[in-house]
Amino acid sequence: MKYQLLEIEPLTPRIGAIIHGVDLTRPLSDEMFSEIHDAWMDHLVLFFRDQAMTSEQHLALGERFGELHIHPAAPYADNNPALMKVHTDKDSLRNNGEGWHSDVSADIEPPMASILHIHQTPGQGGDTLWANMYEAYDALSDPIKTLLDSLTALHTADYTGLYGEHPPQRENPRAEHPVIRTHPVTGRKGLFVNSGFTRRIKGISLAESDALLAMLFEHVKNPNFHCRFRWLPDSVAIWDNRCTQHMAIWDYYPQTRSGIRVTVKGDKPF
How many domains does the chain have? Predict the structure, then answer.
C-alpha cells in the first residue's frame, strides 16, 4: 500500500483529494511530509478540514515545501508580506482569484505551491475550482501539441488599483515562459498559459496569438479537468501552480470570505 499514514478521499479521479487524520498545526515528521508530498504529486491539490492554524504554524507549513514567495502587490497580515490576505466582503471592488489563473505566472520564477487557509466563509457559495493542466495538455490533438511544444508566451501582471491604496511590494512582473511546461518532479507535460496573466504567444502574428490563446483559455474551462471544493472555516488547500489553474467564485455578495495565503517559491519553467 502506497500510503501508510494518510487517509485519502479523492474528489475526482483526475484532480483533488481531501486528506484526513493530519494535524497541520503540529510539526510534520519526515515520513508524514513525504506521504503528503507524494499525495500532492498524485492529486495536484490537497484539502484539509478543521485546521485552526496560527500565522506561525501556517508559515512553518509553507517553509516545509521551500522558501516563501512574496506577492508583488497584495496586502498582508501581521506585518509579514509572506502572509497574503485573501478577503472579499460587501465593500470589495473585486474578488481575489476570479478568472482562471496560475498564481503570479508573470514572475520569472513563478510560485511552486500555494497554501490557502480560509478563516471565515459565507453561509452559501464561495467555492473554488481547480483544473488539471496535465489533462488539458493530454486532451489536445497531436498536431496542436506539436505546434505548442515549440512556442513561448509573454506573461504580464498589472496590479494598479486592484488593492486600493496598499503600496506594492515590487514592480509588476513580466516574463516569457514555454506554452507547454514540463513538471520538474513528475516529468509530465502540462499547459502553461492562463487568462489571468498570459498576453500573447511569441513568434506568431497577433491575430494568430489571439486566436490560439482564446482556444486554449476556453479549453481550460472543460469540466472534465476540474474539481470543486466547498470551503468551511479552518479549511486548508495546498495546490501545485506548475500543473493546475484555479478560479474563486464570487457568488456570495454581500457576505464575507476571508483567509490567508502562504506561497512557496518555484523555479523557471522549462
Answer: 1
Is residue 269 a part of any domain in this protein? no
Residue 171 within any structural domain of the chain: yes
pLDDT tens readout for residues 29-53: 999 999 999 999 999 999 999 999 9
Say if residues 203 and 94 touch (Cβ distance below 8 Å).
no
Residues known to be catalytic: 101, 103, 246, 261
Question: Is residue 47 assigned to a domain?
Answer: yes
User: Which residue is listed with cell 503540529?
Assistant: 26
pLDDT at 1: 64
- What is this structure's pTM? 0.96
**CB-based contact 38:3 (threshold 8 Å):** yes
Domain ranges, residue 182 = 7-264
Q: Which residues contact 197 (CB under 8 A, 6 or more apart)?
A: 101, 102, 104, 105, 106, 155, 156, 157
Q: What is the CATH number of the domain that holds 89?
A: 3.60.130.10
Q: Confidence class of residue 253 from pLDDT cuts 50, 70 and 90?
A: very high
Q: What angle do CA 86, 87, 90 make, to 5 degrees?
A: 160
Within a domain: 2: no
